[in-house]
Amino acid sequence: MEALRDEIGIYLQDLELVLFEELRKAFAQAFRHVLEHLDIVIRDKRDPRFEVKERVETTLETLLGVQVSFKRRRYNDTVTGDSVYLLDEVLGMVEGTQTSPALANLMLHLAMMMSYRDAEESLEQFYGYRPVCHETIRQVVLKTGKALEEIDEEKLRNPQGKRKADLIFVEADGLHVSLQNEKRHSIEEFSATIHEGWEPRTPGSKDFKLVNPNLYRTQQGADFWEQASRYIYSIYDIDDDTTVVINGDRASWIRQGIDYFPKAIYQVDRYHLKRDIRNIFGKDSKVTVELFQALDSTDVTGSTFLAKLAEAKLRLRDSDKAKDCQRLLNDLTDIPEATVDYRRRLKALNRPVESLRGLGAGESQMSRYSQRVKGKRSWKPEGLGAMMEVLAWQYGERMNEFNHRISEVLNHVEFTPLAVKNVVKKAVRKVTCFNRWDAGVPIKNAGRTWSSGISNLMHRLNESGMPI
After folding, report:
1. What is the pLDDT of residue 287?
2. pLDDT digit string (tens) for 66-88?
3. Which of 224, 310, 326, 378 is the most buried (most CB within 10 A)?
4. In sequence order, which residues have a C-beta less than 8 Å from that of residue 365 and are 6 or more positions away?
5. Where are the domains of the chain?
6. Global pTM value
């Protein structure tokens, strides 16, 4: 074995790294040829209103960690007087950036998991050099967040949802986040997790996931439901047969949501309610056990629990806890039915509840947000908004929708995605003249020392009959 290893003279890591470097070089050359050929295609197919002015070189940082420099034509729009690069418009390249969409997408996903500086360091460790700085990553998040907000604003202007659902859940919550160099020390993000219930993550699984999850968030709490309801109506065709279940803590802004739908019920989030009871009466106290039993009784009006809570308050000796209990009573007095599990209330209305589960997705979602935006971090309002918007789309499984918006950009210049795809195929064949048996591997002639023995291996493989 040792003799064979000495004869070959290389290790797998050496082979992988050197071949990867050769792949990057070949990719850069092919990418440049394809882009410049597409620029010619666009020149020949363009609207006559665009006058060619000059060819301008630009450089892209790409997913493979190699810079690709190429030239594309700058045009003058004779109608608007604007200076435009049609290649950038057609391919959906973001104006003012030198980052390829694929690399930007990688940066975006890293930024959702870690700080911008940590994302920068992760890319540097992977590529062996620093392809972008943390500020570039931040700008990608800001621009993406703004674009996603604009998509939602467009929906809110004319909500025309078509999806039908008998039952829609809206779990609302707020998240306080520290601000950076602002008069206010913190800001509240208002969020709603919208879904249609639960289904097994895989057939036969005991692990469940939300059905058709969507997330809405804003920093404008005063008109939260005005905007959130429009967002929900942009997805669903809601009528008198649709029941909307709203779940949240005792915050007054959350319970206002029942006024925005024909048939809606509000449930005080039972996790928060039980937590408050434990804090007031003790985790395992007899009173806490009795209150939990009353909370789960068959009384769908909630009056049994409220009476039990008022009685328990009279036995409190701690004045601070008595005040906390009174505040709890004050919040619940007008809405006793909201303390009852929504499934009991639906069952009393002859609605099937067998497949329904306890609510709590909103709280889980806040925890996911918190992992990225809280801790020792502080934000500018616009930076926080952009990050929260990106996270909302990601966690709501809407990123595919954003990726598909590229079709709209292409249609604006009368260039369909299928046409571009076909042009790219032809361009690759034309500019690379690819013939796998005639193509050469540059490292084969690089010398044994420089290539860590790989050039020698390539020659020997070639001599054995493998066309390299």
Report:
1. 96
2. 889 999 999 999 999 999 999 98
3. 224
4. 171, 173, 191, 193, 215, 395
5. 270-358
6. 0.76
